[in-house]
């Protein structure tokens, strides 16, 4: 498996389950039920792919709690952006100063820390055996 393909799979099983709950909640709050339904379908597919690698992910102690905490932080940030009255007037500013920092922190936590590197090595070994 090439490195590019591995990175796509890693993004699918790690980042999509973290990002989608916030986007689904934001779509529901804004009244875009069709967008929420499409996002829910993508989320279900990502959870299915995540469940295929769940044994490996659970073997890295502490990574699942980091995934959950990043998901909660991003969901809360998007909910605040959607509910706040200033979001209608200054949506870009609210996203810039509330959601983007949480997103960057989540990317660093789920991609560059030692636990993530350990998980990537284990996943690469399994993918290379297939």
Which tags fit this structure?
about 130 residues, elongated, single chain, about 85% helix, mainly alpha, 6 helices
Describe this structure in words.
The protein has 130 residues and is an all-alpha fold. Helices cover 86% and strands 0% of the residues. α4 runs antiparallel to α5 (91-111). The protein is elongated.
According to DSSP, the number of beta strands is: 0
* Element pattern in H and E: HHHHHH
Evaluate the radius of gyration: 16 Å
What's the total helix number?
6
Shape: elongated
Helix content: over 70%
* Intertermini distance: 9 Å
- Quickly give the structural class: mainly alpha
Mean pLDDT: 86
**What characterizes the major β-sheet?**
none
How are the elements arranged and paired?
Blueprint: H1 3-30, H2 33-52, H3 54-59, H4 63-83, H5 91-111, H6 114-129
